[in-house]
Amino acid sequence: MSDHEAAPVLRVKGRVLVGPDEVREELWAVGGRITYERPPGDVVTLTGWALPGLVDAHCHVGLGHQGPVDAATSEKQALADREAGTLLIRDAGSPSDTRWVDAREDLPKIIRAGRHIARTRRYIRNFAHEIEPGDLVAYVAQEARRGDGWVKLVGDWIDRDAGDLSACWPRGEVEAAIAEAHRLGARVTAHCFAEDALRDLVEAGIDCIEHATGLTEDTVPLFAERGVAIVPTLVNIATFPDLAAGGETRYPRWSAHMRRLHASRYDTVRAAYEAGIPVFTGTDAGGSLAHGLIAEEVAELVKAGIPALDALSATAWGARRWLGRPVLEEGAPADLVIYDEDPRADVRVLASPRRVVLNGRVMG
Questions:
Q1: Which candidate among 56, 87, 232, 256 keeps its CA 20 to 30 Å from the CA of 291?
Q2: How far from 285 is each of 53, 189, 239, 247, CA to CA, in Å?
């Protein structure tokens, strides 16, 4: 008997949030798949408000603060995300091979971006391929083939000679690299804290920017016109004051810059949203941040001024469609989270999942 055949037949009764404005009274999970046709025989009934499994679109399974981690640690990271209701992860750069996770029906599904691609000595040690611009196209092609349809660049980082954040890549090399990724069927995203790199990256055809704290009145309309998404990772941006304090003595310009970016973070995200830029949730878990923070990130988007329903979509229906994955539709994998109350009315409900269902099984 296969794992799917061994799964119980589940009935989810109450309010099934198929979409932001589409609610059904019940669904069933048969063989690990969703159906809206009542099956014969006995069922296990779960009650509450059901959402599609949440999305963390910037998460690093397999990464620790000193670089790659072992499989046991990676498993703990993935389990922490699952317990928080995150059942789909876009792994925005990892030095570890986590393909073994795909065979585990009890762990979240991962969309991988390969390993970060950074300029030499311009990123966190042991995280990335560190290369020079002449090798950028080749490494982007390599990671496009290794990933699941995404490639991750480090678009800016501190330049120690200048003492501040600056762009990492010349325009011509970025254009060629993004064109090569697109030729291979991959989308490209980039880490960017500051202002300088954004116009070149967007005009070169990039698909997404991580963090995007450097958006300005000049670049917001450009992002909106090109449909370039952002993943603000506000729970990570909250660490900027501590980072700035740690670098104050050696890099005072950088420290002051990081503080300004932190102070304007909510205004920046709200301006992006109001301009029509697609905004999605990501926690930047891994590295220095704990896993399982997706509810906090959604709450941060609301604090920034994004309406609750749109903030919810940024981790549910909208995020899944952006990544090309199904929601609670007929035949889709039965990946869903059940809550005691309506998360559309108060996104803080996301912090307390009642049941997590993955591939038709109740977890925990």
A1: 256
A2: 17, 17, 13, 22
User: Tokens standing for 284?
Assistant: 């930047």
- Identify the three-state secondary structure at position 326: coil
Share of the chain above pLDDT 90, in %: 96
CB 310, CB 261: distance < 8 Å: no
Sign, Cα dihedral of 119, 123, 129, 130: positive
Going by pLDDT thresholds of 50, 70 and 90, the confidence category of residue 2 is: very low
Q: Find all residues with CB under 8 Å of 37, minimum gap 6, and list them.
A: 28
Task: Work out the pLDDT band at 364, boundaries 50, 70, 90.
Answer: confident
Per-chain mean pLDDT for the chain: 96
Pick from 161, 108, 100, 152: nearest CA to 128: 152
Residue 2: other Cβ atoms inside 10 A: 8
Of the pLDDT bands very low, low, confident and very high (cuts 50, 70, 90), residue 7 is confident
Cα separation, 241 vs 246, in Å, equals: 9
Q: Say which DSSP state 333 is in.
A: B
Tell me the pLDDT tens digit for each residue of 56-89.
999 999 999 999 999 999 999 999 999 999 999 9
Comparing CA positions, the residue from 158, 129, 159, 123 lying closest to residue 141 is 129
Cβ–Cβ under 8 Å, residues 115 and 93: yes
